């Protein structure tokens, strides 16, 4: 049942992102045509162009974080970095993606969901650093100030939340649901640092 719920939510995410990306791209193409037609690039056009770029990056991010990873090809490392740079173009939060090479779509989904979780601890800005090695994924915050909600981080440990997560917090139960399929997660949610480690369960690769 959990597998079906996770698969259905991923398919819904994929459908929404698929339907949004085309009109966003069309707006971007329209702005390019205006530029080619000699329309002076005033502040209004600049604002529209920035908004389209931000929306496009956000939809691409959500497509990986919330979309269906089953049977999907790996994601190029350059594409992942490009998405993250676009999503965090305002500079309030910076993501240091220190992962070489392509990434399996499922692993990219886990990493992006983890980034969304870590962003919740950074309302004042900061950095998220992402590493991958033979032991799995390691993501952590670097910031002067954090805001940590123990109830949210308890969800990743399998603890029952006192109140249901809001729409802005849906990444926590989704990440918990995703890792039940074959990974083990370790969470540290201290006031000074928040980190997530994701590693394969023993024997997961065999079965």
Give a summary of the structure in a few sentences.
The chain is an alpha+beta fold and 207 residues long. It has six helices and five strands; from the N terminus they run H-H-H-E-H-E-E-H-H-E-E. The protein folds into two domains: 1-68; 87-207, Histidine kinase-like ATPase, C-terminal domain (Heat Shock Protein 90, 2-Layer Sandwich).
Helix content: 40-55%
Largest sheet geometry: 5 strands, mixed
Counting helices, strands and paired strands, the structural category is: alpha+beta
Instruction: Extract low-pLDDT stretches.
Output: none
Rg, Cα atoms, Å: 18 Å
What does this structure look like?
The chain has 2 domains: 1-68; 87-207, Histidine kinase-like ATPase, C-terminal domain (Heat Shock Protein 90). It is 49% helix and 17% strand. It is built from 6 helices and 5 strands. It has a 5-stranded mixed sheet. A hairpin with a 4-residue loop joins strand 4 (183-189) and strand 5. The longest helix is centred in the first third of the chain and has 35 residues, at 2-36.
């Amino acid at each position: 049942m959990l597998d079906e719920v996770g698969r259905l939510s991923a398919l819904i995410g994929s459908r929404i992102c698929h339907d949004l990306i085309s009109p966003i791209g069309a707006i971007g193409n329209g702005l390019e045509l205006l530029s080619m037609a000699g329309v002076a690039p005033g502040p209004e056009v600049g604002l529209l162009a920035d908004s389209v770029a931000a929306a496009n990056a956000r939809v691409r991010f959500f497509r990986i974080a919330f979309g269906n990873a089953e049977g999907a090809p790996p994601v190029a490392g350059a594409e992942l970095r490009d998405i993250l740079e676009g999503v965090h173009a305002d500079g309030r939060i910076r993501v240091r993606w220190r992962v070489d090479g392509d990434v399996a779509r499922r692993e990219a989904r886990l990493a992006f969901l983890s980034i969304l979780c870590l962003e919740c601890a950074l309302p004042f800005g900061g950095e998220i650093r992402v590493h991958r090695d033979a032991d799995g994924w390691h993501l952590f915050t670097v910031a002067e100030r954090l805001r940590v909600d123990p109830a949210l981080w308890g969800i990743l440990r399998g603890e029952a939340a006192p109140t249901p997560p809001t729409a802005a917090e849906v990444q926590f139960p989704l990440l918990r649901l995703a890792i039940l399929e074959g990974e083990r997660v370790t969470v540290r949610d201290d006031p000074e640092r928040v980190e997530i480690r994701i590693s394969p369960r023993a024997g997961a690769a065999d079965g």
